[in-house]
Every structure is written in C-alpha cells, then in structure tokens.
Amino acid sequence: MIKTMLLSVFAFCAAITGANAQHVISGNIRNSTTGEVIPAVSVKAQNTPYGDYTNDQGNFRFTVHAPLPLTLVISSIGFTSREIAVTNTEPLKITLEPASILGNEVVVSASRHVQRKIESPVTIERIDNKDIINSAQTNYYNMLQGLKGVDITTSSLTFTTVTTRGFNTSGNTNFTQIVDGMDNQAPGLNFPLGASIGLTELDVDNLEVLSGASSALYGSRGLNGTMVMTGKDPFKYQGLSFQITQGVNHIKKGKGNDPMGPSPYYDWTVRWAKKINDKLAFKVNVQYTLAKDWLAADTSNTNSTGTKYTDPNYNGVNSYGSKTSVDINPFLEAALAQDPSLAPIIDPLLEKPSNYVARTGYPEYGYLSNEAKLLKLNAEVRYKIRPRLEAIVSGTYGSGNAVYSNDTRYALTGYKISQYRAELRSEQWFLRGYTSQENSGNTIIASPTMQLLNEAWKPSFNPSTMDGWYPQYTGALLQALATGSSLDEAHWAARQFADQGRPEAGSATFNRLKDSIAGLPTSQGGTLFLDRSRLYNAEFQYNFTKLVSWVELIAGLNYRMYKLDSKGTLFPDKNGPIDVAEYSAYAHLSKKLIDNKLRLGAAFRYDKNTLFEKPRITTRVSAVQEVAKEHFIRFSYQNAYSFPSNIQSLQSTLVDYNSYASGGSGRLLYGEYQFDEYPPYLLSSVTEYQQTDDPSKLERFNPRDIKPQSVDAFELGYSGLFGSCVLVDVLGYYSTWKNFIGYVNVANTPGTDDVTAFKERSKYISYNIAYNGAEKVNTYGYAASVSVDLSRNFMAKANFSSDFLKNRNNSQINNFNTPNWKFNVEFGNTGFGKNQVFSFNTSLRYRPAYFYSIGFASGTIDANVVLDAQVSYKLTKARSRIKLGATNLTNKYYYTGFGSPGIGGVYYATFAYNVF
C-alpha cells in the first residue's frame, strides 16, 4: 500500500515537472531546390502560443513551456507548409519545397481580419516585399500604376498621388493612405504627401489597395479608395540589410521639353532589425533619395491657340507670372486723348471690345528648385508582455523637397512631417494612439510669387507717376505700329521694350526678389504659408468572435483631433490653433452559411465632425459565394462619404488665403473678405481665369455652405483559380455621387475703365471655390486581370480596366482624370539558370489619350506606352544581389497630369545586401 502511494506521488511530481518543462527549440531552414537559407519563415509549436521566425541566416530559436514531443508548424508564402514532430532539443535541419503563390495570398484590409485575397468581398490589389525586390521600379510607390484599376499622378520624383475609380489629381483628398494603422495624411492639407513618411523600400512587408468606396471601415475620405501599408515585424524580419541605387535621368536634353542634361540619381536605404530575446526586438530604417527632378515645361497657351510670339495675352501652362492680364484699351484711350493724331493707329485697335495683354512669365526651370530630395527615418521597438500581448512604440520622420500641382505648382522645399505611435496589441484587440506633426517648410507658390515678383521689379502701373509696365508697353506698341510694323511684330517689340530691366531667372536680383516674396507670410502680403498643423488619433478595436460564437464580429472606436495651425496664413487662426474633432464607431460582422460556401458580411460606421451639425452613417453589405472549389462570386454595396477637407470646410468662414494662389491676380476663395464686399461671379464662356469687363460674359454665382459628399457603390465580381496556375479576376461597378464637391473659377465685380484707377481695376480678382454640385454624378466601369504561373519561376500577368463618368456637372472642375480604358502587362522570372541566380522582370503600361482638368489648366494627355525592365544576379555566398534596370526604357517622355512634368527614363544599377 505504502509502495503504491509512493509511486503515485512520484508519477504526479513527474507529471508536474513535465507540464512545466522548458525546452529550447532551434534549427535552420533552407530552400530544397537551391539550398539557400529562407528568412522570415514562421515556426510555431502547435496548440501553444510559442514560436519564432527564421532570421536572415535561416535560423530560428525559441523557448517553449510545454512537454515533448510536440509538433512544429512551418509556413512561408511561396513554399509548401510542413508539420514536423519534435522529440528532443537537437537542432533541426529543415527544407521547404517552393510552391505557387497563386490563390494563396492573404489580405487584411478588405474586412479588417485575415482572409485569402481570392475570397475577399471587395476588389483588392496586393504587393509584397518579394514583388518589390523583383520590380523594375526605382520606388515601390510607382509599382502601383501597374495594378488593376489604379491611377497615379506624378507631380515630381518624390510626390506621387494614388487613386482608383477615376477621380485622379495631385493631392487627392478622397483617397486614404494608412501606414501601420496610422492615417498618412498631412494634418492641414488633408492629403498624403506621397511616400514622404511611408515605409522605406526595405521595410515594406505588404501593401494593399482597396478600390473605390471604403468609408465603412476606414472613415472619412475613403471615396476613391484606401491603401493600407504594413511594415516588417522586427521579430520576423531580422538582420542588417542595405540597398544602393545609382542611376541617371534627363538623358536627352530637349526631349519632351526637358531643358536639362544627364543628371545623377541616388537612392540609399538601410534597415537593421534585431531580436534581442523572445520578448524584445527593434528595427531602424533610413532612406535618402537625391536627384534632379522632372520639370513641368508645357508651353501651350491656356488663353488661346497662339504662341508667345503671336498672342500678346499668352499664358503658358507652365509659365508663371503671365496670369497677370490687363485690358490695355483704357491706356490706348488715354493716349488718344493726349494725342488725337494717333487716331488712325488707335481706332482700329479700339474696334475690339478689349485688348488683353499678359505680363511676361517665367518657366519652371531656373525658377523652382528641381533638386528632388527625400530623407526618411524610422525606429520601432516591440516588447512581448506575454506571448500574445505586444507593446509597440515607433517614430517616423520625413523631410525633403517635392512639387505638386493644384491651382498652380507648389514647390514644397524643406518640408517636414512626422508620426509617433504607441500601441498595445493582442490577438483579439488593439489600442493605438498616434500623432502627426506637419511643417510646410519654405513652400513656393509658383504663379502668385511670380506675379508679385513682376510687380517688384517693375509695377504694372504706378498711378503716382502714371508709369509702369503697361504704359510702357502701350507706348512702344504705338511707336512700332507707326513705323510700319505688323501687329504681331509691334506687340513683340512692345514686350521687349517693357521687359527692359527684367531679371533673368536664377540671377542674383531674381533670387533676392523671389526670396523676399516667398519668404514673407501670406498674412503680410507675401506667398509663404506657415502650416504647423497637428493631428492626434486614438483607436480601439476588439474581435468578439470568441465571445459571440454565432457570428464573426469586430468593433471599434476612433477619436481624432486636428490642431490647425497656420499662423493666419492658411486658416483663420491668427489668434491661435483651430480644433476640429471627429468621433467614430464601427462594426463589421460576417457569417458563413450553406456548408461554409456562402459568406455574408455587413459593416456599419458612425462619424461626427464638429464642423458639421449632422453625423454621417455609412454601411457596407457583401456576399461571397463559392460556386466551385477555388471559384468565388462576390457582390457588395457600399456607401462612403467625406467631410470636406479642413480647407474646404472652413471655406464657409472664408479663411484668409491672401496669396493670389488661383491665377489671374487671383486667390483661392478662403479669404476673410465678405461676399458682399467682393461679389463673386462665375466665369462662363471665357478663358479660364481671364479677366473681362464684358458683363454679358459673367453669370452670378451664389455660394452655399459646403456639405459632405457621398457615394453609393455597387460591385459584382468573380475570382477563380484554374489548375493552381491561372488566377482570374473580373468585376463591374456602378456608383452614384451626391453633393459632389468640385471647383469653379469665379471673379469679383470688374473695376472702372478709368486708366488712372488701375489700382481699383486690380481688385478684379479671380478665385477658385469648392462647392457641392446639385446634380447626381454617376461613375461606372469594369476590369479584369489574369495571372499565369508558367512554372520554373516564370510568371505572366495582364490587367485591363475601364472607368466612365456620366451626368457630368460642366460648371465644376471635377477631377475625373482617367482614360476610359487602360491596360498593363508584366512578364518575369524570380530565379533561373544554375542555382537560380538570375532573374528579370518587364512591365508595359498603355494609356490612350484622355482629358485632364486641374485648377490652373486643362488639356489632353497624349497616349503613351511605357516599358520598364530589370535583370538581376544573385551573389549567393555574399548574400547580395546586383540589378540593372530602367524605368521608361525608351525614354519617350509621357505625362500623368496636365501641367505636371514630363517623365523620361531612369537608368540605374542597384547593389543590395541581405535583401531576399
């Protein structure tokens, strides 16, 4: 009896010891075909919270508090998953078989939880770090233009704007960009500054693009789509990596109106990540880009078909300062009154109701700095409080130079933007807080700065001396006509005479005047705006699925505070920052039915903005039916909305924007002036921004308080995998927009005809107003893509998309800037030859001609075909890669936006270490 009891006690103690056993599991994982180590492979002990990822040497090591034997579950995208039984703590040597990734990609952003891309309820496109490595693009951001249904506008080398479903412009406020859970917009301007504080090239884990309406999950501004970027987890992606790209652009001077010659292109990126132990890991990222930017050099005339030699009112698309335009008839009348003998010359000129003459403008080259520069810094620390509870602290800083197009060209010189995040995350919930800080730097607003510079070196008219550029021009015009010159010759001679003393672009005098104007705040009569706005955001989300067994339920709360701070230069905040708050709550439910063949989903979101009385409620309902194995039909209805941007919202209070930013001698109508002081008129049937004294060409415009805009969108799609090697996706959509926000060019009441009252005439100012169109606007389109795994690591892809707009409100500039159809083709190989050390990739994009309208100019973008290509060689033992490539290989300049620069070829060589 005693013996039996002792044995029982011994067995119980042994069981306790085994249950609390601590074992170190380690090993190395390699590619079974090439023998290369495989980093970032997930290794988990089945039915436990313990696991690890292989480091850059292919090694893993973690401690598990569980008895042996146990089973390891090993998985990595692009390889066949394995389960391995572990009976002891000897280091393991494991190999994985390469496998096709088609149909196996997973996404998160479509429903805020992990699911296979092929089963997504809405259209979603995805890029991961392996796609980036094999791409020919010098910047992963530019890869987006090859995705189905995606449009971009490239305003400069460091500023690319992304959108879907047609509404495309530089600085799109209706497309949401989220990086590691943080809204990437500039707090004051309300649009993302391209990749300024996006992820560095080496730190991208994946990037997902949701096409069209997405407010139900991501809130305001998600009308044109949402892009969600996820950085690499330092526990998963470890080691030191760096990438050096040296290239050249502006290859052929004069091609595509490019005035530059060959210029160097540099891009250097470093990433260092280290797992200190099972609980602590960190990463540091640095990327620096330096190059000579593309230049906007469109010389076409926005006022007529004439050239600068034949049209005295010539205003080139990218000619700055020539928006100052005055009818010289009063000067002609004054000259006739002073000398009646000039009647034979002047009377024929006065037969025209007006004779407008524009000041001489300056081209972009030599005026705006074309030094494209971008510095990105990022640091992150992660601490695992428990195996399934993690604390994250991160900071990201971006600074540089960029140019973007809107109502004119804006040169953002030395801008700075940063984001700081603190987060607690478990498998079921997260609590995240972050802030965005903005500094607009020394921004030059191209057109108004040049208009004021022209006035600085020679006033258009000085009433005290009765002299100035226009009186000199008029006198020289009459003298040339009197000596027998033709009218065109006389106008040209008059311009040459009036331009005497005009400083050359880039000269010491020019730079002194430019700096004095561009360095003076708009509130003091200059063109500098001092945007120091900030954003604070807190979000909590919980997955109730384990608590509510009958449905998958995710719900969350979000609070956002904008601190608008422009020192009175952009907002009416002379007395201190303006607070604008948003409150949100959302929920997403999904349920599988009919033997798990049908998944139904619904999402709801409530948003309240303190600038608007009424809250907004948005919804999404969806259904995904598996009609056969690996073949899915999806249907969704979504409504989305956007509160107007902070600038648009505050327009109703007439925010002071005293910068002449809209052309003519005009400004955006965010001025503190009351409408009854400057009655606005719609400029109809006259050239954009042109000033006129003919009342018959003016139609009164009645402003109204701006309202949130919304869209109701229906989508039907199909995704199917054929034989594990052909993936097909097709879709069609139809959307209805309400209270669509567009823009209109307006002007105040014309001044007098008295030549001595020229100053009063200058009050005839043109404006650019955002307002809601009364009509319902519809957009619709369709798209298809096919990806084919050709085996032996060869892959071919093609996609086609089409977007249309109907019920266009012709009184608005609506920014629907996309061709009716477009297609992309890609062909490449990720490893061929002995030991698969060679790889290549080629892509071709075709865009037919299409109309593009933006605040300061409109016109046709010519059809273009763009070819990108690269070939790479791996130095396996050195864990390095050499890539030779080119974007726009043929160097045929093309445009993605009217008034934006022509984009030529970039030819480069890249050396990458530890980047696989």
UniProtKB/TrEMBL annotation:
Keyword Signal applies: yes
Domain of life: Bacteria
Leader peptide range in chain numbering: 1-21
Domain TonB-dependent receptor plug intervals: 117-226
Entry keyword annotation includes ATP-binding: no
Gene3D superfamilies xref list: Carboxypeptidase-like, regulatory domain (2.60.40.1120), TonB-dependent receptor, beta-barrel domain (2.40.170.20), TonB-dependent receptor, plug domain (2.170.130.10)
Pfam families (UniProt xref): CarbopepD_reg_2, Plug
Annotated SUPFAM superfamilies: Carboxypeptidase regulatory domain-like, Porins
InterPro entries: Beta-barrel_TonB_sf, CarboxyPept-like_regulatory, Plug_dom, Plug_dom_sf, TonB-dep_rcpt-like
Compartmental location: Cell outer membrane
Family statement: Belongs to the TonB-dependent receptor family.
Protein name per UniProt: Carboxypeptidase-like regulatory domain-containing protein
Organism of origin: Chitinophaga chungangae
